[in-house]
Amino acid sequence: MVDDVAARMAEAARAWLELLTDDQRSIAVGHGPSGDATDGERRRWFYTPTDHGGLTFHQQRPAQQRAAMRLVASGLSRPGFVTVATTIGLENVLDHAEGFVARFDRERGRDPGLYYLRVFGEPGGHGAWGWRFGGHHVSLNNLVVDGELVATTPCFMGADPATSELLGGAVNRPLARAEDLARELVLSLGPDDQRRAILSTRAPSDLVTGNRTDIGEGDRVIPLDGIWRDERFSDAAEWQKLRAASDAIDAAAAYGEPEHRSLEYTARPKGIPGRDLNPGQRELLYALLGTYFGRVPESVSPLAAYDEAALDLVHLAWAGSTEQGAPHYYRVQGPRLLLEWDNTQRNANHAHSVWRDPGHDFGLDVLSAHRREYH
After folding, report:
1. Which of 55, 65, 156, 361 has the smallest CB count inside 10 Å?
2. Are 258 and 247 in contact (CB under 8 A)?
3. What angle do the packed helices 176-188 and 279-293 form, to 10 degrees?
4. Could you tell me which of 328, 325, 335 has the C-alpha nearest to residue 359?
5. Are residues 48 and 228 in contact, defined by beta-carbon separation less than 8 angstroms?
6. pTM, 2 dp
């Protein structure tokens, strides 16, 4: 039951908060969800290695860290939790790949200790409360209202490196199925359908909707240096390095006005709809949805709602090359659904993926209804 997940979340959140000192709680607890101007911080989210807001692992003792991870696990399926834990561990691999250098105006740029947890409001009971967990390539956002988990989006997971070697010739690809199923589906299309699905031969440098709180008509790619909590670093040299890296990423994408126009977000889905796919292709599309909806516990996953009629309305759009290892992007869109995937940076070995519910992210629709009923 949905209530079971919400109850586990509330119990885990209370257990974590009870272990914290007053000073820690002042950082770990934010304003209760409201949907008005006081709710702005809850709806800020990031996927870059910036301050996500909340108490970091570094600021907690081991027992507190364990309780924090228990809360994180309460909102994830077992595969979802393993993926998040792997993503955190990849910070060490990325640090190794970059030569163990300091970056981003902080002592350690790639830091598995800089993941942030914050609870909004009072867990459990009547009313609204929520929690957010985030750091580099992870952003989990959950809202509970009257004991029911009503929102789990935006839900972001990334991987850098997206592919890395393991002993014995094995390969570590945390988000492999989200990439491979979409490519398999596009390659299965006939020439005419591929022309409908592939919007551009060039892929954007990042997710088109970025980390915006609200998704709107005509949204375009945000430069990398625009997805940080602060407008600029205190260290001017480090800020210039970030700006240079952002410019280099955009230049490598060779993404001009025609590409921006063809890939900009529109409420009307682009690409090929599920109703025009054959049975085998529809199975691939359904499986692709499962790689995103399977991040959360099965009882709160919307996958079961995607029957034949619902699948008809889900569109797939692709940009970039269909060759494995080459820069590419895709979008899956339908009623109350937006999935975005991008793997272009670091020679297409740096993946971003997000599940969103346009117009309903952060549970704003439920909060509005709750206020009307009880206030």
Report:
1. 65
2. no
3. 160
4. 335
5. yes
6. 0.96
Tokens 């991008």 — which residue?
A: 342
Rounded CA gap, 118 and 9, in Å? 13
Look-up of token digits 């797939």 = 316
